Amino acid sequence: MGPVLALVSFVLLLFQLLLVARAVLDWSVALAGPSVPGTFRSRATHGVHAATEPVLGPVRRVLPPLRLGGVGIDLSFIVVFLAVVIIRSFI
């Protein structure tokens, strides 16, 4: 079972890195403005969202964003990220 668990841990690590990339790219929109279509940032954002949304979407439907005034905190991102960290710690 060792190689299988190592592979699962590696895939979860890659997904964890994609989640971090998604957070950075989402913040880049807030700091630098929307990306121009066709640029590297635009393509990277689209790719990362396409890879992570199948996991985050269902969690977001169950756990909507927390509204604090004009700010929304995406709890689904936090829950999925912590779940990946916990699963990797058990493997």
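(the above was protein one; protein two follows)
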Amino acid sequence: MNQKNISNGTTFLKMHGLGNDFVVIDSRGGGVIVTPALARALGDRNRGVGFDQLAEIRDADGADFALDFWNSDGSRAGACGNATRCVSDLVMRQTGANAVSLLTARGSLSALRRTDGMVSVNMGPPQLDWADVPLSHAVDQLHLPLQGDPVAVGMGNPHCVFFVPDADAVALTTLGPRFESDPLFPQKTNVEFVSQIAPDHLRMRVWERGAGVTLACGSGACAVAVAAHLRGITGRKVRLDVDGGTLEIDWRDDGVWMTGPVAHVFDGTLTPEFMAAHR
């Protein structure tokens, strides 16, 4: 389905990966211009459509497609792993391929469909230098000078990972926004709380920068797996339970691979009046 801004409306898709939900707009060939105002309006679950992130598909030179990501507050998201998997699945179904290449603000990525139907994406190497996360100044990223002794990891967007005895007992809606806006993170940060279930099996809950509590966060899952391995808690391949289901994370030499299910829920049409009111 190639969506266009036509006289009777602008079409979109609603997709999700483990409950981490997205509106997908296809801007290939021109016609749709996503703005912060449009992203905020679409992200409103009462007056718009509602999403954790908006994914905009664009034409790309040297790749099958490009992706831009927007949060529900109208801010840009540098990376979104579950949306990348969803849109990659969409494009693979359109083209009949089992693998695709794509461009994001993170750089060049690749995705593929496994024989079991799960979709994997290589989210690239983690960013382990303080300036690349980014942090406001040089500190020990494995032991940040914050209460709770978190780890900082960049995955094209910043993450602050806390290891706790019981992730389900954490006051996520209180602590999430507090650390999201900590001065140590000049671009704000995603915040993950993680507990260990078994060897190489973790439980994660997440507060996403610009979105709040979500049922899953792909880039966050990747950051958690990296942080857990660097702390000596797990190996490089982990099973990670989030509120919406389970992801497989494998930190390989070529990058951090994330695998999980995707779902295409419905197609819809935005009215010309809605589009005109939120340019």
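Reviewer note on protein two: Residues 81-95 form the longest helix (15 residues).
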